[in-house]
Amino acid sequence: MNILVTGSSGQLGSELRTISPHCGGLHFFFYDLPELDITRCEQVDRVCQEHGIEVIVNCAAYTAVDRAESDAEAAFMVNRDGVAVLAACAKDRQALLVHISTDYVFNGESCVPYRETDTASPICVYGLSKWEGEEQIRQISPSHLIIRTSWLYSGFGNNFVKSMLRLGADHQMLNVVFDQVGTPTYASDLASAIVSILEKHERHYHYAETYHYSNEGVCSWYDFAWTIMKARDLQCRVLPITSNEYPTIARRPHFSVLHKAKIKKDWELDIPHWYDGLERMLKHSC
Ligand SMILES: NC(=O)c1ccc[n+]([C@@H]2O[C@H](COP(=O)([O-])OP(=O)(O)OC[C@H]3O[C@@H](n4cnc5c(N)ncnc54)[C@H](OP(=O)(O)O)[C@@H]3O)[C@@H](O)[C@H]2O)c1
């Protein structure tokens, strides 16, 4: 099976590239900017044609959550319009589109884990652009799997874990918000889940599903930061503060834990706890 991975130099794309040599029967083709811009349909069509692509895994996205507030046009161009280009290409080729979305499609007012059927109501430009991208796929592409995830980190790229390690090494104290609760997700675990799904999916079946995937467990950014310091024996004290005490340009949901029963049942996935993911990431990558 020939699989195109877009945005392949990002966190998730890089994790997929790392495990790809161990996936017999799955032939991956990795592309990122500038060779493949998902907003350019002639580029997407050419690459798909060249490699006989049967599945597109879209890891490309505009992910700068705060910058998106003042750069909405660019965020929508990639996260909505680029996704529509991929959906149209997948439809023309009768290919499956696997697309990654976000917990930020929710407003965070719930206090129980979000299910796939819960109403999306994004509170920031990034979240809205990702939601509109999802909707493009549902309208255009008859065969798709949309997988929402949360708080991604990896040994590749920039992320919260790496920032904490860097700041923890040269600060005695750090303030971190405790009133945003969710689940960190090791991008390597999400990459393994995607591979597992691709190995099990039936080629000629038309899937049209939305799923939630994060690691197991729940924590606040404060808990996550504290655990990172502890795991690395860093002496930096982590102090809990509220989001009001740490204003950001974009609003973020206070609660975005994802309910994962559907993906676990449909694809027989065993999902590691976030603490286990963190330990493996620290062992392998940093
Ligand atoms: N990071 C998180 O915490 C998080 C949480 C929930 C969901 N997600 C979703 O998970 C997915 C993977 O996230 P990630 O953290 O791996 O993202 P990432 O590290 O930011 O990688 C995204 C990649 O897409 C590339 N890209 C941007 N615009 C593009 C375009 N027009 N055409 C082709 N490639 C383009 C980026 O290139 P440049 O770097 O050159 O722009 C980058 O290499 C995304 O859909 C994201 O929305 C992420």
Layout: helices, strands, pairs:
Layout (H helix, E strand, L loop, with lengths): L1 E5 L4 H9 L7 E4 L10 H11 L3 E4 L13 H22 L2 E7 L22 H16 L3 E6 L2 E2 L6 H11 L2 E5 L3 E2 L2 E2 H14 L7 E5 L6 E2 H11 L5 E5 L19 H7 L6 H12 L1
Helix pairs in contact: 1-6, 2-3, 3-4, 5-7
The structure holds NADP nicotinamide-adenine-dinucleotide phosphate (NAP).
Annotated CATH homologous superfamily: NAD(P)-binding Rossmann-like Domain
CATH topology (fold) name = Rossmann fold
Order of helices and strands: EHEHEHEHEEHEEEHEEHEHH
**Corresponding CATH architecture:** 3-Layer(aba) Sandwich
* CATH class membership: Alpha Beta
What molecules are bound to this protein? Answer: NADP nicotinamide-adenine-dinucleotide phosphate
Total beta-strand segments: 12
> Major sheet, described briefly?
6 strands, parallel
Beginning-to-end CA distance, first to last residue: 33 Å
Structural class: alpha/beta
Whole-number average pLDDT? 97
Radius of gyration: 18 Å
Number of domains: 1
Q: Which term fits the overall shape?
A: globular
Question: Which blocks of ≥5 consecutive residues have pLDDT under 50?
Answer: none
User: Counting H and I runs of at least 4 residues, what is the number of helices?
Assistant: 9
The strand line-up of the biggest sheet is 2-1-3-4-5-10
Helix content: 25-40%
Beta-sheet strand percentage?
A: 15-25%
